[in-house]
């Protein structure tokens, strides 16, 4: 009997990957652990490029909808099966007699286009036409502590904050956030978010391993600057705000490094701490600064004019 039940689970998993994560009675999604969330991501991001897009997104939507088995549950329960987190932002609660609500298990191409459009309106925050891992994390219900690691409620204000965090946790000044340093960062992040330290060491190791699987693009077991920047995106790019906030006519120290990090991202997608150091040296040498490690308004204008002529580095 038990072997038969296990065989059924394996068969359902092969036919519809999302079905295993729904409650068999209510058909609502169960809270996912960090490892389960990563399994979902890896299953649908088939090419491993860090996005669910195109046919991958079509496959995810089809399986997400059909896994609810809407024909087996009551009409009043169907409303809770849909994408609960943001229903107020997008009309996912279709009328009861809407064809998508009536035939969730057999979506036509026309229904899929309508569903995809609505889904992207609700979850594609940066409107790039694809879903990244942070956007998926807002859709799927996850255990609270793991969700806190994405800092949805308190994103960093700017790259100045980011650089301060980078220097604090790159404790050996290697230019990388190693696994132990990442674990310390995640522990402090959870302690700050929950004001208590109730996360076990085993859970911290699980979270660290999961974050490395997600954000360690070159799979070297550590996070370089550009990879950490994806884990900790900033609310506001330095280039889109008033740079000389203190009215002293120049920028320096962490403010300068935050500014240069945002500049570097314009021309290089994949970069590490050494790239930032070399970029800083090149920029400062290029504007002929007076060895005080500061950039004035005039020098900043020269930098921006020069970079405006540089094509993006698509190969990096």
TrEMBL record:
SUPFAM superfamilies: EF-hand (SSF47473). The keyword Transport does not apply. SMART domains: EFh. InterPro entries: Calbindin_Ca-bind, EF-hand-dom_pair, EF_Hand_1_Ca_BS, EF_hand_dom. Residues 1-22 are annotated as: Disordered. GO terms for biological process: regulation of cytosolic calcium ion concentration. This is EF-hand domain-containing protein. It comes from Anopheles melas.
């Amino acid at each position: 009997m038990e072997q038969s039940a296990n065989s059924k689970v394996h068969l359902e998993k092969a036919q519809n990957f999302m079905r295993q994560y729904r409650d068999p009675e209510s058909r609502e999604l169960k809270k996912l652990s960090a490892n389960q969330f990563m399994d979902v991501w890896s299953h649908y991001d088939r090419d491993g490029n860090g996005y669910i897009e195109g046919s991958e997104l079509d496959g995810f939507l089809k399986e997400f909808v059909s896994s609810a088995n809407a024909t087996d549950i009551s009409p009043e329960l169907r409303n809770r099966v849909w994408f609960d987190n943001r229903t107020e932002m997008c009309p996912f609660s279709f009328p009861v007699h809407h064809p998508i609500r009536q035939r969730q298990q057999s979506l036509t191409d026309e229904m899929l286009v309508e569903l995809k459009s609505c889904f992207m309106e609700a979850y594609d925050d940066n409107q790039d036409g694809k879903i990244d891992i942070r956007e998926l994390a807002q859709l799927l219900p996850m255990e609270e502590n793991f969700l806190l690691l994405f800092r949805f409620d308190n994103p960093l204000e700017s790259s100045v904050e980011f650089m301060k965090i980078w220097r604090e946790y790159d404790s050996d000044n290697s230019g990388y956030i190693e696994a132990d340093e990442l674990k310390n960062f995640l522990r402090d992040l959870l302690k700050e978010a929950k004001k208590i330290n109730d996360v076990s060491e085993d859970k911290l190791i699980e979270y660290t391993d999961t974050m490395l699987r997600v954000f360690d693009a070159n799979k070297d077991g550590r996070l370089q600057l550009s990879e950490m920047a994806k884990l900790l995106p900033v609310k506001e790019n330095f280039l889109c705000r008033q740079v000389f906030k203190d009215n002293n006519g120049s920028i320096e120290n962490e403010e300068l490094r935050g500014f240069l990090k945002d500049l570097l991202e314009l021309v290089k997608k994949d970069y590490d701490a050494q790239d930032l150091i070399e970029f800083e040296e090149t920029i400062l040498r290029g504007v002929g600064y007076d060895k005080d490690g500061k950039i004035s308004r005039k020098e900043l204008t020269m930098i921006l004019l020069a970079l405006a002529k540089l094509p993006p580095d698509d190969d990096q």
